[in-house]
Amino acid sequence: MTRALVLAAHPVPDSFNAALHAKTVEVLQGRGWEVDDCDLYAEGFDPVLSEAERRGYHDEPGNIDAVRLYVERLQAADVLVMVFPVWNFGYPAMLKGFLDRVFLPGVSFKLVDGNVRPNLTKIRRLAAVTTYGGTRMRAILAGDPPRCCVTRAVRYVCQPRSMKYLALYDMNRATKGDRARFMGRVERTLGAF
């Protein structure tokens, strides 16, 4: 059975992003997949990398002790779907902290002679579902760090066969129709993913 880890990072349970999160889980479960729904805010995930964690960052396997349950959930996944808003052209701190604390040496990558090698290759599908307050052009002019991180860094450590980056830009001016069309796009894309 396909197992999907859905990583959600939005603090407001009645937001449009929360609705995207719910739709993502619904669609993946509708495919008959086992879904591990990891709502980082609801679970009270601590995004702060401590001094002790940083000092022991490269000390495998003990480097995972503080986040062992999240590491196990990530390593069990065949599919990773990240659902988050883009704030100030970056991830919410909660999601950035997850990447800092859980995507560790020996977990998401291996260091071989100082070179990074992928280590989450069990993940065969990777997707992001996100919203931006600004326009696509503003995101491009800022370098679009979230898109680059997902489509380059996260993609590299997973080496997925399939990758999707679904973004609704200009959320600050999106109409009800814009949001409905994007929700439909998410449903169709993940339904065939």
Describe the overall structure.
39% of the residues lie in helices and 22% in strands. The chain is built from seven helices and seven strands, in the order βαβααβαβββααβα. It has helices spanning 16-30, 51-55, 68-76, 93-102, 136-141, 145-158, 176-191, and strands at residues 3-8, 34-39, 79-86, 109-112, 115-118, 125-132, 162-168. Helix 1 (16-30) runs parallel beside helix 7. The radius of gyration is 16 Å and the shape is globular. The mean pLDDT is 97.
List the helices and strands and how they pair.
Layout lengths: L2 E6 L7 H15 L3 E6 L11 H5 L12 H9 L2 E8 L6 H10 L6 E4 L2 E4 L6 E8 L3 H6 L3 H14 L3 E7 L7 H16 L2
Parallel strand pairs: 1-2, 1-3, 3-6, 6-7
Antiparallel strand pairs: 4-5
Helix pairs in contact: 1-7
Secondary-structure content class: alpha/beta
Spatial shape: globular
Mean model confidence by pLDDT: 97
Q: Report the portion of residues in β strands.
A: 15-25%
Order of helices and strands: EHEHHEHEEEHHEH
CA radius of gyration? 16 Å
Quick tags:
193 residues; alpha/beta; 7 strands
Short description:
By secondary structure, the protein is an alpha/beta fold. The chain is 39% helix and 22% strand.
